[in-house]
Amino acid sequence: MIWTAEFAVQKWLYDLTPYVEQRRDEFIPSTFETATYEDKVWGVPHKTNAGFLYYRTDQVDEVPKTWQEVYAKAAETDGIAYQGAAYEGLTVDFLELAFAAGGKVLSDDGKTAEIESPENLAALEFMVDGFKSGATPRP
Q1: 75 Rama sector, left if φ>0, alpha if ψ -120 to 50, beta otherwise
Q2: Kindly report the CA angle at 74 between 77 and 66, in degrees rounded to 5?
Q3: What single-letter DSSP state applies at residue 43?
Q4: Which among 101, 110, 125, 132 is most buried, taking Cβ atoms within 10 Å?
């Protein structure tokens, strides 16, 4: 959730800390953290997003264990579909591959951008190669 800080600063949100703090252990910690800004809780993380990989059992005999296996099998069949438009969906899809490759966006201390790391560049190249191999069909 990217809007918590911006909305809290504008006073568009109500401080919910007194209402949810005693229930903190009922929430996924990282999800709860997205509603937290300057040690106050500005929202209740009712739902969370999670990445899923669906595959067609009529085309895939066994569950792929790596992204490389996913793309190789996709190139042999009808291809892989993902959110490839120029919006946050593409960013999320890229980050899933980058994180799987050991990449990250920021340094551990949060002070330095690491978006151009070798791992992230390899993930980007992997996505591009998906088009070249036919694993990702062109629209």
Answers
A1: alpha
A2: 145
A3: S
A4: 101
CA distance 25 to 88: 29
Q: What is the DSSP string of 106-118?
A: B-TTS-SB-TTSH
Predicted pLDDT at 37 = 94
For residue 4, what are its two tokens?
């918590």
Mean pLDDT over each residue of the chain, to the nearest integer: 89
Rounded Cα gap, residues 115 and 62, in angstroms: 33
The structure tokens 């996924």 sit at 28
Angle at 55 between CA 31 and CA 102, to 5 degrees: 50
pLDDT tens column, 29-51: 888 888 999 999 998 877 777 77
Mean pLDDT of 18-25: 89
For 82, the token pair is 């993902």
What's the full length of the chain, in residues? 139
